[in-house]
Amino acid sequence: MPFVTLNNGVKMPQEGFGVFQVTDLEQCKQAVKDALNLGYRLLDTASSYQNEEAVGAAIKESGVPRQELFLTTKAYMQEMGYEKTKEAFDRSCKKLGTDYLDLYLIHMPLADYYGAWRAMTELYQAGRIRAIGVCNFLPDRLVDLCFNTDIVPAVNQLELHPFYQRADELALLKEYGVQPEAWAPFAEGMNGMFTNPVLSAIAEAHGKTTAQVILRWNVQRGVVIIPKSVHKERMQQNLAIWDFALTDAEMQQIASLDLGRPQMLDTRNVKEVRRVYDYLNNPVVTSL
Ligand code: NAP
């Protein structure tokens, strides 16, 4: 598994496993155990996913040494602010069964994220977090944060897939030394991504699946990917992307699929801001 080097020298696997919407905690535990067994070492959860305990239980039962893992979680809007973020960090660590995080992320550019960033900076300097970063920060928010901190975010986790490619933003992240990480690398299959004719033809030419081409395209752009699946054979398939390469012409063909706008989340849209704030009021989690 290739690694990328973050702006503070920490090495991060270029591919990991995401657990958003795996709300049945037994299923989440089993999926994470399967993923670890298959060789995934980066795990991506969030307090808002309400499955950190299942991720922690899976890590414990897997027997994989903690230091081999790259464990990411995120603080949600209700956890923004200096004091609240410190408490949220302790709560997440307890649920995950760890005393440090590899990556702690601000989940949304909303609420008091400057207070949160101060708390995260202190935890980072105290050695409790190996790298700190953000999610869903559009260029103006990211640059503003960079002007107001001694610690530039190590990562910006963004919606990044063939239908929303954000080439200009990737160039800006490179300029600031921030590692892009793709959430929803398949756009959860929206807009027929898995049967798209351009992607399917490229897949056929390589004897690979469309899913593998989608992931390979993003890693060839230098992006970290965290696909989610609860199916073992798909987890395995999603890992088998390191033995082939897309040509420049194929990368160009995929570039032509860009729709140039978010397909999943637009934090500038008032309806969606209301939706993300409401997310925690509608839990569908089943117990462990
Ligand atoms: P995704 O990875 O784009 O898509 C997951 C969907 O694709 C699932 O329905 C899965 O089905 C299916 N799938 C997976 N591998 C496949 C394959 N090889 N062939 C066909 N179908 C396949 O969506 P996501 O879970 O939303 O995003 C990935 C991770 O990013 C999340 O789990 C989470 O950790 C993170 N995330 C972060 C944010 C943020 O705001 N920071 C937002 C969203 C997500 P099955 O499970 O049924 O196999």
Describe it.
Helix content is 41%, strand content 15%. It is α/β, with parallel strands linked by helices and 288 residues long. The protein has an eight-stranded parallel beta sheet. It has a two-stranded antiparallel ribbon with strand order 1-2. Helix 1 crosses helix 2 (52-62), helix 1 (25-38) packs parallel to helix 9 (232-239) and helix 2 (52-62) runs parallel beside helix 3. The radius of gyration is 18 Å and the shape is globular. Residues 18-20, 44, 107, 135-136, 157, 183-189, 194, 211, 226-231, 234, 237-238 line the site of NADP nicotinamide-adenine-dinucleotide phosphate.
Quick overview of this protein structure:
The protein has 288 residues and is an alpha/beta fold.
Please describe the structure with a list of short key phrases separated by commas or semicolons.
single chain, TIM Barrel, 288 residues, globular, binds NADP nicotinamide-adenine-dinucleotide phosphate
Q: Strands, helices and their partners?
A:
Blueprint: E1 3-5, E2 11-13, E3 16-18, H1 25-38, E4 42-44, H2 52-62, E5 70-75, H3 82-96, E6 101-106, H4 113-125, E7 129-135, H5 139-147, E8 155-159, H6 167-176, E9 179-183, H7 197-206, H8 210-220, E10 224-225, H9 232-239, H10 248-255, H11 270-278
Parallel strand pairs: 3-4, 4-5, 5-6, 6-7, 7-8, 8-9, 9-10
Antiparallel strand pairs: 1-2
Helix pairs in contact: 1-2, 1-9, 2-3, 3-4, 7-8
Residues 18-20, 44, 107, 135-136, 157, 183-189, 194, 211, 226-231, 234, 237-238 line the site of NADP nicotinamide-adenine-dinucleotide phosphate (NAP).
